[in-house]
Amino acid sequence: MPRYIGMRLLQGIFTVWFIATATFWVMHSIPGDPLESEKAMSPEIRANLEAKYGLDKNEFIQYWIFLGNMVRGDFGWSFEHENRRVNDIIAEQFPVSATLGILAIVFAGLGGVLWGALTALYRNKWPDVLIIILVILGISVPSFVFATVGQLGIVTLNKIAGIDVPVAGWGTVWHMLIPALVLGLGTMAFLTRLMRTSMLEIVNADYIRTARSKGVPIAQIFSRHQLRNAILPVLTVLGPSIAGITTGGFVVENVFGIPGLGKYFVTAVQQSDYGVIMGTTVFYGAFLVLMVIIVDLLYAVVDPRVRLNK
C-alpha cells in the first residue's frame, strides 16, 4: 500500500506539472495583451508594470519563475485586480464555490444512487421509464437552461405562496438550495444511469442467486450485496465529479450572482489576466488529481477484494 500511494502521488505531481506547463504556453500563445486597458498608458508606466509582473523577461525565464513560485505555493499577482495576489483570491472565493459544490454533490450522489437503484428494481416498468426520460433530459440540457428555469420557478413560487425565497445572491441556506440542485442535476443524471447499469449486471450474479436460495431477506441482499457492489463504478466517477462540481460551477455562479471562484475565472479569461487564469487552472487541476487519488484509495475500503499492490 505505501508503495502504491507513493506511485500515485508521483503520477499526480507529474500531472499537475503538465497542466501548469500546458496552461502557461497556451496563455502566452493566445493573441492579446494582459496590460491593455481603456486608459492611455505611457511607455514609462508600461515598462514599470512589465517589470512588476515579470513580462519584460524571456518567456522561458518567465516559465521557470512561474514553476518555482508554484512549487512554493505562490501563484503570483492578478493583472486586473490591483494589489491582489492570486492566492488571496482563491482563499477568499473558493470556500463559497466549495460550499455550493459540496451541497450539489450530496444532491447528486444521494439522488444518483437512489434513482439508479429504483430503476433497476422496477426495470421496464413505468418508474424506470419515467426516470430514464428525466435522466436523458438531465444529461442533455445545459446547466444555464436549468439555472434560468430554476430562477423562473423561484419567482413563480414566491408569487403563488406569498413567500420571499431569494432569486440570486449568497448568504443564507435559501440562497444555496436551488443553485446546488441545478449544479448537481447533470451529475445526478449520469450517476443514475451508471448505477442502473451496475445494478442490472449484479442482479443475476451467482452470489445473489446463492443468497436468495439460502432464504436471505431481500432487503439484506439489496443492502449488503447488490448496493455495495453496484456502487463501485459510481465511486470511480464520484471523485472527478466532486472536483468538477466544486470548482466548475462557473455558469451557475454567474446566473445566480454567487461570489465564487468561477466569477473571477470567467472575468480573467475575458481580460487575459494571466495570473488568475494560470493560478486557478493549476489549483483546479491539483484538486482534481487529489480527488482521483482519494477515490483510488477508497476502493480498498468499499470492496475488500480490491488489493492496491503493484
Order of helices and strands: HHHHHHHHHHHH
- The dominant shape is flat
Oligomeric state of the chains present here = single chain
**Average pLDDT rating:** 80
Strand content: under 5%
Which residues form runs of ≥5 with pLDDT under 50? none
Please report the total strand number as a whole number.
0
N-to-C CA distance: 9 Å
The helix fraction, in percent, is: over 70%
Largest sheet: none
Write the SSE topology:
Layout: H1 2-29, H2 43-53, H3 59-71, H4 86-121, H5 126-140, H6 143-161, H7 173-203, H8 206-213, H9 218-247, H10 250-255, H11 261-271, H12 274-302
What do you see in this structure?
It is built from 12 helices and no strands. It has helices at 2-29, 43-53, 59-71, 86-121, 126-140, 143-161, 173-203, 206-213, 218-247, 250-255, 261-271, 274-302. The chain has 310 residues and is mostly helical. Helices cover 76% and strands 0% of the residues.
Any descriptors?
310 residues; mainly alpha; flat
Quick description:
The protein has 310 residues and is an all-alpha fold. It has helices at 2-29, 43-53, 59-71, 86-121, 126-140, 143-161, 173-203, 206-213, 218-247, 250-255, 261-271, 274-302. It is 76% helix and 0% strand.
